[in-house]
Amino acid sequence: MPTIKISRKALASMQPKEKITTYYDEDLRGFGMRVMPSGVKSWIVEYRPGAGGRSIAKKRFRIGGMELSPEQARTAAEKVLASVSLGSDPAADRAGERGALSIAEIADRFMRDHVKKKRKANSVEGYEGIIEKHIKPAIGKKAAEKVTRADLVKLHNKVSEKQADGTGGPYAANKMLAVLSKLFNWASDLGLIKEGTNPTQFERFNEEQRERFLTGEELSQLGAALVEAETIGIPHDVEGDEENSRHRKRAHQRHVVYSPHITGAIRLLLLTGCRLREVLHLRWSEVDFERGLLFLPDSKTGRKTVVLSEAAIDVLKSVPRIGEYVVASESAGTPDEKPRHDLKKPWAAISQRAGLKGLRIHDLRHTFASVGAGGGLGLPVIGKLLGHSQASTTQRYAHLDIDPVRRAANIIAGNIASKIGGKH
Q: How far, in Å, CA of 104 to CA of 242, rounded?
């Protein structure tokens, strides 16, 4: 392992490599910086407990991360080494504390100190849902260092089973395992569990592609359902709704009319290819009608400019302005206004009325992309419209981009047919 003069300047040269690399300080024996392949950096100090000597195995103690300056870390290392010379064993003491940490305790710290500070709101919600629904009930009380691969294989299989409420399945099981993997890696990097502990390394379930693209006929069905929803309303199914039931609602109560904010949100999802949160969190101040643009300050891929079609602009102009957000929530116009949280209930009713059972609201974004790809617009243009930061993300629509291939086939085959003669 390299030995260098550890300083603020030296930190810049400590780039992650394929394997864990530890840089030791040339002045203070045992003090160093450990750089993980993931890029996480930790200050450490190594020592031999007890009487010392080469016959005693070295122990490593993590001092902290990049929140400490080299000077602060060096001072902390000197204190650790001083305590060792007096007979203390800091690594053993920490191991005792660490062994008592449960998965639930680590998960709470993972959410508080990592996810909520570094992830966007919808990601935080996703992590919380998985931890509270699947992870804590199954293994939350178990000591983190005692969780085995067998425990997680069992949990993985259990989550993969579809439940009556529609939750679960291979995709949910793999997502749960991905969250656990990040949790274990984070805890390991911080010294909360033994270094290198990650029992999630086993085979995932195969996942079927979940993209669904609406056909022209299905788009017409959805359009008709939207018009019905905002005018006469969608029939509301009431349990025990027999003709003679005393609970039967009157005719005018048996339809639910949805506001233009809800129907407008669904149309905007279709006409812009935006993500759900991008539409629900859209402020009027971010709409530029003159240039036909949306300026989103914080999308999934960072700042994003959305080019609006005339159809999308017409939808925006038709939505009544009530508060700060385009899609008004119940708190619209109040001092504590918040954006609408989701469209789950209205979307379920409208999509079912359109005969599109099982259609996810995210499939509207896929439909926008598929229409563009099928029209031969080219993947780079589609990626730009969708706000993809990587070309590989747009590549999933490549099989729909058939017009350029068909033109090429016609040119090649036409040339050959002209030479071989016959019908063509």
A: 48
CA atoms 276, 277, 278, 282: torsion sign: positive
Instruction: Give the Cα-Cα-Cα angle 346, 349, 350 (nearest 5 degrees).
Output: 85
3-state helix, strand, coil in the chain (%, to 5): 50, 10, 40
pLDDT at 13: 84
Q: Into how many domains does the chain fold?
A: 3
pTM of the model: 0.56
Tokens 């122990």 belong to residue? 59
Pairing relationship of beta strands 21-25 and 3-4 according to DSSP bridges: parallel
Using CA atoms, how far apart are residues 152 and 365, in angstroms rounded to an integer? 34
Block mean pLDDT (10 aa), the chain, length 424: 86 87 92 88 88 75 88 92 86 67 93 90 88 94 90 94 80 94 88 83 80 82 93 70 45 78 92 87 93 81 78 92 93 91 91 89 80 55 55 51 55 62 51
> What's residue 157's pLDDT?
94
Q: What is the CA radius of gyration of the chain?
A: 29
8-state DSSP, 259: P
Q: Which residues contact 138 (CB under 8 A, 6 or more apart)?
A: 155, 158
The answer to whether residues 143 and 170 belong to one domain is: yes
CATH number at residue 387: 1.10.443.10
The boundaries of the domain holding residue 245 are 216-404
- Between the alpha carbon of residue 281 and those of residues 122, 284, 352, 394, the distances in Å are 11, 10, 25, 24
